[in-house]
C-alpha cells in the first residue's frame, strides 16, 4: 500500500467595508503546481454581521471551484495518455 498526503490551504479575506468575504483554496500535491479555487460571499445590508457564515460560504464556493478545476486537470492528464477527448463529471 502506498499513501499520499495532499494538503488544501484555505486563505480567507474579509472586506468589512464592502460586506464581502473572499476565500482561496490551494491544493498542494507532490505531482503538480498547486491548483487554486476561488469563492466569494456577500452580506446583504439587512443581514446581521456573522463573520463565520461568510467564511463558510466563501470557503464552500472556493472548494467547489477547486473540485471542478481538479476534474479538468484530471481530464487533461487522461487525454495525454489516451489521445481522445475526455469529459468527466462530478
Descriptive account of the structure:
With 90 residues, the chain is α+β, with helices and mostly antiparallel strands. Helices cover 36% and strands 29% of the residues. It contains one helix and three strands. The chain has one helix spanning 51-82, and strands at 7-15, 20-28, 35-42. It has a three-stranded antiparallel sheet with strand order 1-2-3. Strand 2 (20-28) and strand 3 (35-42) form a beta hairpin. The mean pLDDT is 92.
How would you briefly describe this protein structure?
The chain is an alpha+beta fold and 90 residues long. The chain contains one helix and three strands, in the order βββα.
SSE layout and pairing:
Elements: E1 7-15, E2 20-28, E3 35-42, H1 51-82
Antiparallel strand pairs: 1-2, 2-3
Q: Could you say which structural class the secondary elements and strand pairing correspond to?
A: alpha+beta
How helical, in percent, are the residues?
25-40%
Low-confidence stretches: none
Shape: elongated
Could you give the distance between the termini? 26 Å
Rg (CA only): 17 Å
Strand content: 25-35%
The helix/strand order is EEEH
Strand order of the largest sheet: 1-2-3
By DSSP, the count of extended strands is: 3
Question: In this structure, how is the largest beta sheet organized?
Answer: 3 strands, antiparallel
Number of helices: 1
Mean pLDDT: 92
Question: What is the quaternary state of this protein?
Answer: single chain
Amino acid at each position: 500500500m502506498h499513501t499520499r498526503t495532499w494538503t488544501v490551504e484555505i486563505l480567507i479575506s474579509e472586506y468589512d467595508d464592502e460586506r464581502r468575504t473572499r476565500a482561496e483554496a490551494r491544493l498542494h500535491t507532490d505531482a503538480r503546481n498547486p491548483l487554486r479555487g476561488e469563492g466569494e460571499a456577500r452580506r446583504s445590508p439587512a443581514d446581521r454581521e456573522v463573520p463565520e457564515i461568510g467564511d463558510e460560504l466563501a470557503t464552500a464556493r472556493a472548494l467547489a471551484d477547486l473540485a471542478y478545476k481538479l476534474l479538468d486537470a484530471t481530464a487533461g492528464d487522461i487525454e495525454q495518455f489516451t489521445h481522445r477527448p475526455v469529459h468527466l463529471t462530478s
